[in-house]
Amino acid sequence: MKKIFYITLGCIGLGLGALGAALPLLPAFPFLLLAAVCFAKSSPRLHRWFIGTKLYKNNLESFVRGQGMTVKAKIRIMTIVTLTMAFGFLMMSRVLVGRIILACVWIMHIFIFLFAIKTKKADSEEAVPLICKKLRVSGMRCESCARRLECAFDSAGSFKAAVDFHENLATVYLKEPVENDVLIQLVQRAGYQVEQVWEAAS
Q: Which residues does the UniProt record annotate as the domain HMA (predicted)?
């Protein structure tokens, strides 16, 4: 039942996100983020399909790789969303249902940006990673595999990874020492195998 709920919610987010990519009054980002989260929780197959779409690549991929947004970026986007929707709200003075829908969408946007999206420090304030490890990975067949592996590391919370599909290489940045077995298990859970692990200069 829970899986069906997440899939349904993810499909709704995907549909609204696709509309938002085409309509100026309906920003796509929050809805696509909702779809990504719901698909990741419910269906690996849907999640893999979604992260391979142009809709994901053009609107969400850079955010996912960045592991969050700075306060400045959040304020900028929320301001744009608020001004855009305020204009639409004023234009719909005689359409009560339209105003209600816009108000609900605006509240949803603000809620997602405040509570669902991780806030990260500005680049100048971030601690420099202490350790950089490289993993030779086998089993990846396309760019989607590389993105899937990056998401696997990102979801662990304490890692930041960049995966090069052509080189079969994953570069993982660590803020504290981690056993190689932990990294290997993350790769294996994503469906791939580690052939070699070594520490590199960060």
A: 131-195
Q: What is the DSSP string of 26-62?
A: S-SHHHHHHHHHHHHHH-HHHHHHHHTSHHHHHHTHH
Number of Cα atoms under 13 Å in the Cβ half of residue 4 = 1
How far is it, in rounded angstroms, from Cα 4 to Cα 77?
A: 31
pTM of the model: 0.41
Decide if 103 contacts 153 (C-beta within 8 A). no
For residue 83, what are its two tokens?
A: 């001004």
Domains and CATH numbers, the chain: 2-116 (no CATH), 131-200 (3.30.70.100)
Q: Which residues of 1-12 are buried (b: 16+ CB within 10 A; e: fewer)?
A: eeeeebbebbee
User: For 31-78, what is each residue's pLDDT tens digit?
Assistant: 777 788 888 888 888 888 888 888 777 767 666 665 566 677 677 767
Per-residue exposure over 151-171, b if at least 16 CB sit within 10 Å of its own CB, e if not: bbbbebeebbbebebeebbbb
Beta carbons of 169 and 135 less than 8 angstroms apart: yes
Residues 116, 137: Cα–Cα separation, whole Å? 31
